[in-house]
Amino acid sequence: MSKHQELRAIMKKMSGQDSIITVPRIFIEYLEGDLNTALVLNQLVFYADKTKRTDGFFYKSYGEWEEETGLTRRKIKGSIDKLVNKELVTTKLKKANGAPTLHYALDYDKMLASITAKCANPSEQSVTNPDSDKVSDSITDDLQLNSTNELNSSRQAFVSVVPFYEENFSGIMTAYHRERLDDWCEALSPEIVLRALEITILQGGRSLKYAEQILNDWQRFGCRTLDDVENYEKTKKQQKEARRHGRSSQRHARGTRQSRKEISGNEKQSTLGNGWYRPGS
Fold first, then answer.
1. What is the pTM of this model?
2. Which domain holds residue 44?
3. pLDDT tens per residue, range 25-40
């Protein structure tokens, strides 16, 4: 067994214990002292090895993350975002039990290569405590600050989605509805989700299922911003009008052909002797 395989086997064995979660020190060193993200990475390693999907994806709700790790949803999302930025984790919205659910996939080989390279160069390590009150001018701290600002902005935008849903949609907003909306906000953006809810109301819909059909459509065609959404809806409207115009032209053409057949039939019925009978002659 190569050292690469040994390291991979050790990581799998040490990750994902019940009640007591053992986080490999190498994760903490690689993530420069970020214990929260090291803990999330540890769980990802464990579950990525358990998935039966051929593409390596598995799903887990924020409620399950919170129960397993003891971290808040904000901290979990921040850690996931950090791992995504490092290109170690990929997230996709896929269906689970009939509903769109956020799925995760861990790039084992890239993770091992990155960790090995990082730990092989101690001079490049800068172990810091992300909860420390001390101010640091390091690039890592700047990135963490930007990530925090983005998270706060995202949560503020999500806050506007919830009251809109409660005021305009039928039924009581349950924890399931809130989690579904939160997942969509993470997969696309709160602004896009709010726009989908608005279109749902304008088209006479009053259910989350209706709005999710719109969101699925936008995600399928790669909409990531409000401009993408508007351009897609504009193109779809133009295509719909073109199809309507095409059907109208076909009906007109069929009507013209039918009229010609009727005229031809009348002329044949009006033939007298060897000549044509013309009305009025």
1. 0.44
2. 3-111
3. 888 888 888 899 999 9
